[in-house]
Every structure is written in C-alpha cells, then in structure tokens.
Hints:
Blueprint: H1 17-20, H2 29-41
Amino acid sequence: MPKPASESPYTEIKPNPSLEMRTRRKFTADYKSHIVMEAKACKHSALLRRP
Length: 51
C-alpha cells in the first residue's frame, strides 16, 4: 500500500554540497612508520586487537 502524499510544501530534499564529497584521510609519514614498527614488534594479530 503506497504512502499518502504529504500536504506540506517543504517535502523537497535539497542536497548539501558539504556532504556530497568525502575527503580521504591523510596519514603522516611519521604515523605510518610508527604503525610499521608496532606491527614488526607484535605477536600474531595483537596489533589488530589494540584499543
């Protein structure tokens, strides 16, 4: 059963340009090297279980 038409004149959805394009996260070289060093020092799957 279809939904009845709305009586309100404000039913049009307007796009929000700020939400249209998501930006990619950017990690610094220092952060990346820190993660690599952690991974090398970890035992099996311990890095994945960190908080």
